[in-house]
Design goal:
The protein is mainly beta. 9% of the residues lie in helices and 44% in strands. A hairpin with a 5-residue loop joins β9 and β10. The radius of gyration is 14 Å and the shape is globular.
């Protein structure tokens, strides 16, 4: 069953809620970024790129910093995180190549909503049962 929270969710509302301390940031195979953020309530947010470039190239420098803002640029579709010390994380989606390309990135919330973004302006939000909630 789709929850009310899932139905009310949008990429912007989910990203506005993403705040907290970065507790892990690493590169996994094949050149994907994994970041974990703990919010004020102790909830764990999990973020991963799939088909995107990211800067800084060494994400270890993000660990221990506090994420203050996450915003999606509506023109470039870049995801930009602003950290408390002025550091930024920028995720740049790969150019669209095929309609079945994987999402550029994925964010899993502490209450198990999953936001997948890309390729292009496509996005979807699924609940823990992975049923589609929204698509644009």
């Amino acid at each position: 069953m789709v929850t009310g929270d899932a139905l009310a969710a949008s990429p912007a509302t989910i990203l506005r809620s993403l705040r907290g301390r970065i507790v892990d940031a690493r590169i996994a195979y094949p050149e994907v970024l994994h970041v974990e953020v703990t919010d004020e309530a102790g909830g764990l947010w999990r973020f991963a790129t799939q088909d995107a470039a990211f800067d800084p190239a060494d994400p270890a420098c993000l660990v221990g910093r506090t994420l203050e803002e996450a915003r999606l640029d509506p023109i470039t579709t870049e995801l930009r995180w602003r950290l408390s010390d002025g550091t930024r994380l920028v995720v740049v989606p790969a150019p669209d190549e095929a309609p079945d390309d994987p999402p550029n990135w994925e964010l899993i919330t502490p209450d198990h909503l999953t936001l997948e973004f890309g390729p292009g302006l496509r996005w979807q939000i699924a609940g823990s049962d992975r049923r589609l909630v929204s698509r644009s």
